[in-house]
Amino acid sequence: MDLNFLIIGSLIFVISAMLQGFTGFGFSILAVPLITLFISPKIAVPILVMFSLIINIVVFSSSRKEFNIKRIWLLLVFGIIGMPLGTYFLVVLNDNIIKLFIGILIALFGLLLLLGFRKEFKREKLSMIPIGFVSGILGGSVSMSGPPIILFLSNQGVNKQTFRANLAVYFFILNMFTIPVYVFNGLITKQVINFSITFLPGLIIGVIFGNFLSHKIKENHFRKLTLILLIIMGVLSIISGLKTA
Fold it and tell me: CB–CB of 127/121 below 8 Å?
């Protein structure tokens, strides 16, 4: 392995893992466009999925007392149901148009929440059905299952540790459904495993430091930062869609 790639790759995983350890999301959004500058997506994405499992275990362990299964079980069920439809859309639709459309929605709703426009869903369980379903569709089509869940939890005023714990479980379970598919399709190769072992120390350092920071920031600052990052994710999705649409 090239020394420059070893150093740069380690930094990418440290920073990306720190972001997810801190906020509960953002690892793949940051790591994918950077690490794929150096290795093929067919190698990078399986590494990221396996790393996400580790990160989400660490994040959950630090905030497990705040976990609320009532807040995510319907999201999970309908997220899993929506994934096959998302995969179908990926096959038949232009994924860049999907990215553009979703990016606009994410940035718009994130900005509205940041500016204080918030209306909690009174019938929370009922609202989880379409939100979980849309999340599954986005996960299957453009690997962006997170934003609808992040927007929903933020809109409902979920405290930061419950927010982090619930996201960790949600992403963990969805990834558990993804890995067997990758194994079946021969994507978990010896090269993927070797790269994973090489970059694992940086990942662990990043997520532990991010976890530490998450306990030091005030609730209102955490919520604002989360929404700002979500808006950035939306803008990046728009740019990605425009570049290749």
Answer: yes
Separation CA 41–CA 84 (nearest Å): 21
The helix (run of H) or strand (run of E) holding residue 235 is helix 219-244
Ramachandran angles phi, psi of 77, nearest 5°? -55, -50
CA 27 to centroid of chain Cα atoms: 6
Summarised one tens digit per residue, pLDDT across range 21-66 is: 888 877 877 787 778 778 887 788 889 889 988 998 888 887 788 8
What would the DSSP string read from start to end of 11-77? HHHHHHHHHHHHHS--HHHHHHHHHTTTS-HHHHHHHHHHHHHHHHHHHHHHHGGG--GGGTHHHHH
Q: For residue 1, give the DSSP letter.
A: -
Neighbouring C-beta atoms of residue 116, cutoff 10 Å: 6
Position 21 scores a pLDDT of 86
pTM of the model: 0.76
Query: What does R_g of the chain's alpha carbons equal in angstroms?
Result: 17
CA-CA distances (angstroms) from residue 153 to 128, 166, 178? 10, 9, 23
